[in-house]
Amino acid sequence: MVRKALGKGLESLLSNDFVPSKHILLELEIDGIIANPYQPRKEFNEESLNELAESIKVEGILQPLLVRKVKDVYQIVAGERRWRAAKKAGLEKVPVLVLEVDDLKLQQIALIENLQREDLAPLEESNAYKNLIDKYGFTQAELAEQIGKKRSTIANMLRLLQLPDQVKKELESGSITVGHAIAVLSVDGLDQQETLSREIINSGMSVREAETAARKMKKTKADKPVPQPGRAYEQLLQKLRNHFKTKVEISSKGHAGKLAFDYYSDDDLNRLIILMGIKIDS
């Protein structure tokens, strides 16, 4: 029976539109089944697979794999972990339920299966969301509705893809959490983000402490005094004022800026233009 509590979960996707009405279970040769190319999970824990394989040797596969037929083979829709463990257990055949699903449903089901078991690593989840958005043109709100997640969750997970490579490695290794990573993203610049991530790890900060450290880092940057013009800058400004006999201001930002001259009448403007050596057709 479909459990409504899952909302847009796996059961919702496996509605009568996609599950054969007769629900006939088949047994297929394990070598005639291939993995899901859209599987968001890239790493399978070997120890966990071995434990499942031992259980399968004793109990068999209690829940059939979901597959779809692609040409002469069957492609996994859900249950790749069971399939891998069954191969380790030496099974020659496995129970399956054949579905008729398109690529979009295939990706959605594979993603939701992993999300419901909380098996995906953070960046695997982020990339799965990005692939669905890029391939099918979903907005974040539409994707959230499709898979039963909050839009803010989708947005935050997608932001993880903006982390510096070093911080991504720290997230993948478990040195920092998703909450830490979001705090890191709140500061500007890759260097500052890497610095904050190192401080989080070295100090063993909680997420709340990391958020506080990020706010302090941003405030320190905002309070940093603007460098005052040097002597050469002041000399240049004075020479310009003496030459053009008017008020001259230079405002700079990094390597760019503005040079402004004041004039007080049309004749004064023409005088400045002549001093600049600009010829205007009469």
From TrEMBL:
Superkingdom, taxonomy of origin: Bacteria
Family matches, as SUPFAM superfamilies: ParB/Sulfiredoxin
Pfam families: HTH_ParB (PF17762), ParB_N (PF02195)
CDD domains associated with the record: SPO0J_N
GO cellular component: chromosome
Any one Gene Ontology molecular-function term assigned to this protein's record: DNA binding
UniProt-listed SMART domains: ParB
Domain HTH cro/C1-type: 130-159
Parts forming coiled coils: none
GO biological process, one term: positive regulation of sporulation resulting in formation of a cellular spore
Keywords: Chromosome partition, DNA-binding
Family per similarity comment: Belongs to the ParB family.
PANTHER family in UniProt: CHROMOSOME-PARTITIONING PROTEIN PARB-RELATED
Protein name, UniProt field: HTH cro/C1-type domain-containing protein
Organism from which the protein derives: Candidatus Schekmanbacteria bacterium RBG_13_48_7
